[in-house]
């Protein structure tokens, strides 16, 4: 049965470096939580503390209602998969998967059945006699996952599980990993610095920086409604604007910025006051690029200064008068002959719907 995981006021210092600063988080039973953030944000330290590989200076780790903070790693009932997979090269696939069962004293017949069932789950039936060197990167990843799951852990811990794979294989394995996690219904914590991976795989995302939790929410919530500029920019490209509040209405505000006035729904908690300085963002895919101003919504005049084709979309870089930073606009690619391409130096109008505006609760 799936168990919840709860970290309460976890702190960890390494000399003068604060890895975790009274960090708390809750993972629901059966969900996949991604810990996302830049290098040094504390996500790996949190995972190692859950696993028992690091000892916190303060705080409590609960699995269900059981405090596992003082238990050694092999008594915590957890499964862990490392980025490099750590397969034993001299053991066959079957021996690698069954290693934890053998250490637990499971009899040979039961072990063979559980190994066979697990290899079937990860789609490696008939691979038992092969060695790691005879496998592709994706197959090695699935062996490592099977070894972590065969012991029926209460919680599965994944440390950059797809980081060693190339892009195409990583994308296919995202679906495979999610399928297995949902089939078993196992509570899972995954550490990653890859935004796409976190958004694709997780039920909820915990965004971290400098040992603190900045925001927790579903992938859609943290992407569409980031609370801070840091979260907005870390979850993907964001065009950030500074503005002053001109006036407010029930659920909306008029914001004046260099190059025009922007009106939109206020998504921040609390009350905005006229004259206050605010920051807001608009994602590149929410912007419309037009050769004229015959478009609805908020508008800024600009000039195209860059263009790259990225397969499924065109990325344009546009400079706006009075703004030092360029604005990025993504346009969905269409069939050759059916799309309007903008030339370098061409004057354009950038427009967006008020609903596309992300107004930050904080500027951090």
Residue share in β-strands: 25-35%
Estimate percent helicity.
10-25%
Q: How many individual β-strands?
A: 20
Euclidean distance between termini CA atoms: 40 Å
What average pLDDT do the residues reach? 89
Shape: globular
The succession of helices and strands, N to C, reads EEEHEEEHHHHEHEHEEHHEEEEEEEEEE
Instruction: Please state the CA-atom Rg, rounded to the nearest Å.
Output: 25 Å
- Helix count equals 9
- Describe the main β-sheet briefly: 6 strands, mixed
Strands of the largest sheet, in order across it? 6-7-8-3-9-10
Which stretches of 5+ consecutive residues score pLDDT under 50?
A: 264-269
SS class: alpha+beta
Provide structural commentary.
By secondary structure, the chain is α+β, with helices and mostly antiparallel strands. Helices cover 23% and strands 35% of the residues. The protein is built from 9 helices and 20 strands. The chain has helices at 43-51, 93-97, 99-103, 108-121, 137-149, 167-184, 195-201, 219-224, 229-234; strands at residues 5-14, 17-27, 32-36, 58-63, 66-67, 78-81, 155-159, 187-192, 204-209, 212-217, 239-249, 252-257, 260-265, 277-282, 288-290, 298-309, 313-320, 327-332, 347-352, 358-359. The strands form 4 sheets. A 6-stranded mixed sheet has the order 6-7-8-3-9-10, sandwiched between helices. A 5-stranded antiparallel sheet has the order 13-12-11-14-20. A 5-stranded antiparallel sheet has the order 15-19-16-17-18, with no helix packed on it. Strand 4 and strand 5 form a beta hairpin. Helix 4 (108-121) packs across helix 5. It is globular, with a radius of gyration of 25 Å. It starts with a strand and ends in a 5-residue tail after the last strand.
């Amino acid at each position: 049965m799936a168990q919840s995981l709860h970290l309460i006021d976890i702190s960890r210092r390494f000399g003068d470096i604060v890895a975790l600063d009274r960090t708390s988080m809750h993972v629901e039973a059966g969900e996949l939580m991604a810990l996302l953030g830049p290098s040094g944000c504390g996500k790996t330290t949190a995972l190692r503390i859950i696993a028992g590989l690091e000892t916190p200076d303060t705080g409590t780790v609960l699995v269900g209602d059981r405090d596992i903070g003082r238990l050694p790693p092999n008594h915590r009932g957890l499964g862990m998969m490392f980025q490099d997979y750590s397969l034993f090269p001299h053991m066959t696939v079957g021996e690698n998967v069954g290693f934890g069962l053998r250490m637990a004293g499971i009899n040979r017949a039961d072990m063979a059945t559980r190994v066979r069932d697990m290899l079937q789950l990860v789609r490696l039936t008939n691979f038992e006699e092969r060695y790691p060197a005879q496998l592709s990167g994706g197959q090695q990843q699935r062996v490592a996952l099977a070894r972590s799951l065969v012991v029926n852990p209460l919680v599965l811990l994944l440390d950059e599980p797809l980081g060693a794979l190339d892009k195409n294989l990583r994308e296919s394995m995202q679906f495979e990993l999610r399928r297995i996690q949902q089939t078993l219904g196992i509570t899972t914590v995954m550490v990653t610095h890859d935004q796409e991976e976190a958004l694709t795989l997780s039920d909820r995302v915990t965004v971290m920086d400098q040992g603190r939790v900045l925001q927790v929410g579903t992938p859609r919530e943290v992407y569409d409604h980031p609370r801070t500029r840091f979260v907005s920019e870390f979850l993907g490209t964001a065009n950030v604007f500074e503005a002053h509040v001109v006036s407010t209405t029930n659920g909306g505000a008029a914001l004046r910025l260099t190059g025009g006035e922007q009106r939109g729904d206020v998504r921040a908690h609390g009350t905005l006051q006229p004259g206050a300085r605010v920051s807001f963002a608009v994602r590149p895919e929410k912007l419309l690029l037009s050769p004229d101003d015959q478009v609805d919504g908020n508008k800024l005049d600009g000039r195209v200064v860059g263009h790259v084709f990225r397969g499924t979309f065109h990325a344009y870089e546009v400079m706006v008068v009075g703004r030092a930073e360029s604005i990025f606009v993504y346009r969905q690619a269409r069939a050759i002959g059916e799309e309007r391409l903008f030339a370098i130096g061409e004057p354009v109008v950038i427009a967006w719907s008020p609903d596309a505006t992300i107004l930050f609760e904080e500027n951090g």
